[in-house]
Amino acid sequence: MTRLDPRNPLVLDTKEVGRRPGSMTELTRTVEAPADFGTDVMRVEEGEPIALDLRLESVVEGILVTGSVRTKATGACVRCLDPVTEEVDAVFQELFAYADRAAHHREVGDEELAEEFTVEDGLIDLEPVLRDTVVPMLPFQPVCREDCPGLCVECGMRLVEDPDHQHDLIDPRWAALKGLAAEPSTTDEEKRT
User: Along the 193 residues of the chain, how does pLDDT read in single tens digits?
Assistant: First the structure.
């Protein structure tokens, strides 16, 4: 298991809160988004500011972190490929169990609580909590606007620029006959000369 780096801006030191239930501290900070923070379609770009308002409370089981996260996600419209920007504003609450409590939950076979986040050497890592909060909120199929007509499937033209755009399509089974109709007919007299 790797140790948490206290210099990482998403790693919080809980020593100020202490272990006495009821003690609390509030933090406001802006951090840079980590790499791969999103999906293939929509993401918070690496380095994008993430504004956090946090409250850390000591409870019997560990540190309860309640907070809000605000940032901006970018992607491409799935219909016309224009850039799309979405404001993300979410709240979360997560319990980070003390190591001895987490070990106790594993011993008694409480699988649900054994998989919770833990306090490691007085530090907690917010990154997985933020991923679990922000990523599910990102649109699966972002659009630049609800009525975006998209692109022409034949030539790729943006249909918003020419709503009446169309192609005269010929059934491929009849396409060979089109060539015959376009050729000039030859008469018997022309063949003799």
Answer: 568 888 899 999 988 888 888 899 999 999 999 999 999 899 999 999 999 999 999 998 889 999 999 999 999 999 888 999 999 999 999 999 887 766 655 666 655 554 578 888 889 999 999 999 999 999 999 999 888 888 777 777 777 677 777 777 777 777 677 666 655 655 555 655 5
CB atoms within 10 A of CB 153: 9
CA-CA-CA-CA dihedral for 144, 147, 152, 153, to nearest 10: 90
The span from the CA of 25 to the CA of 50, in Å, is: 20
Handedness of CA 107, 4, 46, 9 (dihedral sign): positive
Output the CA–CA distances (angstroms, integers) from residue 22 to 11, 59, 63, 86, 111, in the order listed.
Answer: 22, 6, 10, 37, 27
Closest C-alpha among 99, 83, 24 to residue 57: 24
Rg (CA), the chain: 30
Q: Please tell me whether the overall predicted TM-score, pTM, comes out greater than 0.85 for this model.
A: no
